Amino acid sequence: MRNKLAAVLLLLAGAVQAATLSVKDDLGNTVQLAQPAQRVVALTPHATELVAALALQRLVGIDAASNYPPAVAGLPKIGRFDTVNVEAIVALKPDLVIAWEGTAMQRSLQPLARLGIPVFYSKPQTPADVADNLLRLGKLLGADDAARAQAGKLQADYAALKARYRGAAPVRVFMQVNAQPLLTISDLTFLGQAIKDCGGVNAYAAAGVTVPQASAEAVLAFAPQLLVATGKVDGLAGWRRHAALPAVQKGQLYGIADDRLVRPGPRLVQGVQLLCDRIDAARQVFTQPKPAK
To answer: What's the pTM value of the predicted model, to 2 decimals?
Structure first.
């Protein structure tokens, strides 16, 4: 009888241990591991950065677009944002796969569920979301302490950034994410919110969709003091013929071709700081005192 009771207690203890490694992913699915993941495949650049920040040595495979930190360069590249090589993933023998939540990706990864390989779908948008992903992945990796430290620092850094620009003189901003067709962002996106947090006024803040199609007429009427492209500044060349635009008059056209601004990973606040720097530079140009006559 005593031996049977001991066996039951051992089983219960094992069940409790397994339950401690249980989290929800960004689709609301429960992801459970019997022990901390030791072999991780990351199928999106921000996931690669999240895992690398917590347990770089656990990464055994990444997607083709992952390029940071430099230490991941030699890892097998087994897919891209919309499709993957399932056979290559299985060959790496992962005990956790982290993927973007797109429909095409979910369809590609369906065979993994049948093989019992857990998949965590990740879709952070804001620094708070990134911090939350760090905490949940930290649990699955057995890196809770590191996750708490990094999540806390990221949130504190962003709070300090917002405080720095709170009350700053507003700057009218048009952010171009595509030239043909002309696309921008609304305040329904993190980039739109970031413009506001930097003290900017987004030309399409109130648009009812995340990535609205803009019109040149509306942009000209808005008279932006800053034109920003999420890419090379060459993409803004067409605006230079509109000499009456304040941004063109004062030379405030910038491209931010930096992954940190558009990749929701541990370096996201650094990326927002780049945007804030550009907005603040325009602020200084348009608020500096006029020279005395």
So the answer is: 0.88
